[in-house]
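Why does this matter for the project? Reviewers at the last site visit asked to see concrete outputs rather than summary tables. In response, this paragraph embeds two records directly. Each consists of the residue sequence and, immediately after it, the corresponding structure tokens. Nothing has been edited or filtered.
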Amino acid sequence: MASGAGHRRAHARRRPRASIAAEAGVDQRTVYRRFASREDLLAAIYEARLTAIEKAIEDARLREAPVAVALHRYVENVIAVNRTWPVDLARMLADESVRARRDAAVREVDAFLERATDEGLLRPGLPEGWASALLPDLMHLVARQRPELTAGQAADIVVDTLLHGLGTP
């Protein structure tokens, strides 16, 4: 149930559960029976998004796969998550337990980006945290502005932009 509701733009700020149910294509009674409040519904959506992010990181094999392969796989997976669970991250991160899980995922990706720098995929000498700040923004941008692309095609653009920038060679 949370999957369907999350899939259909449950990120709106003050939408009643009935509106979310209608957009998700489920009967509002199902939503009311399953979730005691709008906050419970959002908590289920946040839980599902976090679980999907954790799965995306695990599936990318950031610690053991070749760096270029892991980078593309991670980006592709996260773009798919961003499209499936387009939630308001600021609201989502207001919850301490959610923030703790998200921070653990960020640390995992940061360690991977350090590995990518150590192995020569990313240029050394950039300001600290630059790649960590830029990568999520690129993924969100392509997920929102290029919905016609598959997650793989969108990942191609993000990875190419991250590794080569916008200038000519």
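We now turn to the second protein, recorded in exactly the same manner.
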Amino acid sequence: MTGRVTIVRDGATAWEGPFDCGDDALYYRAQDMADHLFTFPAVRRPGLVNYILLGADEASFHDGFRIADGDRIAVDVKSHGVAFENRVRYVSPAPSTTPAAAPAPGAKVREAARPAASA
């Protein structure tokens, strides 16, 4: 799938970028994520169509951009003719806008286990 994400803040585009989604952009296998996702009754309602974007090769986070309360995030999935948008509203204290501190030099960093690719 291909598309574009636009983040609007105070009426002006604050960040935007194209994206490609698909198996190549995923950290976990799509089947494993779908199996987990569909354990939730909210996504198994008869007649409900779910567009689930699992993984993308572009993100505002990689550019150092942080969303803020009130931002409007618009996603245009061009390859499927689908567009949607949501406004960010924090219901508890907003997360820090500063990036997380890097581990101290020499500190052990635990890596997430990555599932083996299936044949």
